Amino acid sequence: MHSQSVARWQHEHAFLGKKHDVHERRTWAVVALATVMMITEIVGGWLFGSMALMADGLHMSTHVAALSIAAVAYSIARKHMLNDWFSFGTGKLGELAAFASAIILAMVALLIGYESVTRLVSPVTIHFGEAIPVAALGLAVNLFSAWLLRDHDHHHDHEDEEEEGRSHYENDHAHHMDHNFRAAYIHVLADAVTSILAISALVAGLYFGWVWLDPAVGLVGTAVIAAWAWSLIKSSGAVLLDAVPGRERAELIRQRLEVEDDLVTDLHLWRLGPGHLGMMAVVVSDNPLSPDDYKARLTGIDGLSHVNIEVHACPGHSLGQQAA
Q1: Under a CB-based contact definition with an 8 Å cutoff, are residues 279 and 290 in contact?
Q2: Is residue 323 part of a domain?
Q3: In angstroms, rounded to a whole number, what is the distance separating the alpha carbons of residues 126 and 214?
Q4: In order along the chain (324 residues), what is the average pLDDT of each group of 10 residues?
């Protein structure tokens, strides 16, 4: 059999997001910013005795770790996207990176919480005047990093979707999201919030003498980081475990395939990468069509990048259903 005759049934398994290269460059840029700011805040917190500033610096260290993991994942995914060793491509490397960074965040949250409680029990001298400018610089870097990591075109990604698909799952676009990039964005945004809390605590300590507020803000930062870590663990873990990316879409696929006496006896839908879904289905019918005919019924359903349909003739199955 000539290779040209089977070409229509062959395809690459490159399931990376549309903006993979852009997200990779921006992530590396933020890694550089986070590294500089992490060193500045940790040294400043140690010199000036500010737990809030130290906590913000330690949180910034999670940027360096998590964002570095994200950037490396982008690079590896791009380099090996056509490597057939990966059965369904490298689109899930971002989810693995997000899950790893979430674990790191949870560990850092525990560390900051422990240090904050220690400072509440045994207060230390804080040099508020020196610490405030460093915290303000940290906030500026966080806001700029958040701007770099913001998906400016997110709201335009789905404008070309077909109206029929939109009516069935208009609120179900999670499969388009680059969780690796989105996690980094939420991370720096959350850190900007903790920076604001740190500045507020330092200002209150300087003018009102509320020294206790500085480690108390460290505890608030602990709660914010822990909550974000748990949220990221759930979202990235669901993809790694091949959870169904939208029950409404799965139901739409079933409805499209089950026409007249056609019956879907097995259906699997999972995420392969940002904007890419894999689907496998088994269809039984009194009068089965070809797999291509069933695939044609799915035209217009957003994100289906790898579709396999197995068809079996099962004469009389519809009569059996009616009798039951």
Answers
A1: no
A2: no
A3: 9
A4: 50 60 80 83 76 67 80 81 72 85 81 81 69 77 82 46 41 60 77 76 74 78 84 87 85 90 89 84 89 88 84 67 45
What token pair was written down for 170? Answer: 């208009």
* Number of domains into which the chain is organized: 2
CB environment 274-292: b (16+ within 10 A), e (fewer): bbbbbbebbbbbeebeebe
Q: Does 193 fall in a domain?
A: yes
Same domain membership, residue 168 and residue 26: yes
Max Cα-Cα span within the chain: 84
Measured between alpha carbons, how far apart are the two ends of the chain, in Å?
46
Q: Which of 240, 272, 303 is the last residue of a domain?
A: 240
Measured CA to CA, the distance from residue 50 to residue 217 in angstroms comes to 11
Quote the pLDDT of residue 165. 41
Asked if 132 contacts 206 with a C-beta cutoff of 8 angstroms, the reply is yes
Confirm whether 314 is domain-assigned: yes
**Distance between CA atoms of 232 and 68, rounded to whole angstroms?**
17
Alpha helices in the chain (DSSP H): 3-6, 20-48, 51-79, 93-121, 128-149, 163-169, 179-208, 213-240, 247-257, 291-296, 317-323
Distance (Å) of CA 1 to CA 11, 12, 57, 292: 18, 20, 63, 20
Which range of residues forms the domain containing residue 259?
Answer: 247-318
Q: Are residues 177 and 254 in the same domain?
A: no
CATH of the domain at 187: 1.20.1510.10
